[in-house]
Amino acid sequence: MVTTNKQSEVETSAALVLRSAAFQFIISSMAPVTDRAAGATIAAISVSVVLFSYLFIKHHPKDRSTKNTKPFSLSKRSPKNGVVGAIGNTPLIRINSLSEATGCEILGKCEFLNPGGSVKDRVAVKVIEEALESGELVEGGVVTEGSAGSTAISLATVAPAYGCKCHVVIPDDAAIEKSQILEALGAHVERVRPVSITHRDHYVNIARRRAAQANELALKRKTEEQLCVGDLEQINGHIYDGETQDYSFLSNCKGGFFADQFENLANYRAHYEGTGPEIWEQTGGCIDAFIAAAGTGGTVAGVSRFLKEKNPNVKCFLIDPPGSGLFNKVTRGVMYTKEEAEGRRLKNPFDTITEGIGINRLTQNFLMAELDGAFRGTDREAVEMSRYLLRNDGLFLGSSSAMNCVGAVKLAQSIGPGKTIVTILCDSGMRHLSKFFSSEYLSRYNLTPKAAGLEFLESR
Q1: Model-level pTM?
Q2: What SS3 class is residue 373?
Q3: What is the pLDDT of residues 412-423, one digit of tens each?
């Protein structure tokens, strides 16, 4: 320990007084008994005073201005700029149980720690900021989106920070707590039945229409207030033609903007500019492989492209749930699913209890991905993995996060021990209580978890 000059002086003085006290004690021992008792007492008092003074000054130096004394501080980091500033830079953690079981370092990026609770916070910020910058969205406008939950919640979380509102169209088979969260956040929620993307009433197509209707209403209001009859003007790129419907929740908005998370490349850019660089920095560039599932494709595309630009030897993979055609597209170049081949597709396009992942078309975001291969995952594997991680690591993860971890283990088994593998922990289990974490719901589909270890994993 480095000491100040004043401390050194005190320590020297203390040593001298201690010697003096010791000498006095020796002299007193040679004196008569009564004198000896008095001398010993004086010596003991001297020693005590000196020791107390030394310890007090050593641990409580008066000179607080010296360079060796650090003031108390919780953190040197400056405060974040609102909720938007708190998004991103999430921790990258070692998933201990999976790492020990496979011999690989399996790392998970904790996106569930974002303010809105998921990886989609990054996308929401990027989409809104680019729309505001381009003029497609203005303050006071409404952002519309068709979403199974997480993107919608993220948009509803951050939209108010930009002075905007949020309207969400969600399939009615999504976990009910997602709708409840959205309504609590102040978003207008429209629940619709799940149909094919080619149907005009698919939730994404309805969300697109709602944005157009918001533009019509805003232009009609402006026309009535400011324009002469026959004079047309554009609002957010939309020309008012006099035909509109009365949607009260859109009536007070200054136009609408359809976020279009599946095709809007702001999604991809959010991960290419944010998630990917963070992973590279947090691993110090020591990463062998990355794996994640795809819904819109933005995460796997942005991260894979960035990592491969930094190091072409980094291998990037997809993990695909039941009912999705991406596995076959990546591995065989043909977009089809097992369910389609066997002619037993269900009314739900994705035939899976996992939410937010799996798709049967190529989005503009997914087309940006650079992948080396793909693995299949099952509902049972995702359910069992979620319980395994809860028991062994204290990680309470949602369905897509669990599926990503299934992929990480399969990838580890494929490439062998000693490698570093990164995946995305998209969201927590808090949004999946009514389905993915419901014993009653799982038993209905014969998915009650039973495994003790990782024996539930199937090959590829």
Answers
A1: 0.78
A2: strand
A3: 999 999 999 999
Task: Of 38-42, 298-302, 308-312, give the lowest mean pLDDT range.
Answer: 38-42
The answer to whether residues 404 and 277 touch, using CB atoms and an 8 Å cutoff, is no
Please tell me the distance from the alpha carbon of residue 327 to that of residue 452, in angstroms, as a whole number: 28
Instruction: Tell me: pLDDT of 67 over 70.
Output: no
Give me the residue label for tokens 């940006």. 368
3-state secondary structure of 290: strand
Spatial strand order in the sheet of 188-192 = 188-192, 165-171, 142-146, 256-258
Apex 230 CA angle, 226 and 235, nearest 5: 55
pLDDT digits (tens, 9 = 90+) for 155-202: 999 999 999 999 999 998 888 888 899 999 999 999 999 888 889 999
- E-strand stretches of 361-402: 373-376
Q: What phi and psi values does residue 455 have, to the nearest 5 degrees?
A: -70, -10
Here the contacts of 232-240 (C-beta below 8 Å, separation 24 or greater) are: 236/135, 236/136, 236/137, 236/138, 236/141, 237/136, 238/212, 240/215, 240/216
The amino acid at residue 396 is: F
Q: 3-state DSSP: the chain helix, strand, coil percent, rounded to 5?
A: 45, 10, 40
Q: Strand pairing of 92-94 and 165-171?
A: unpaired
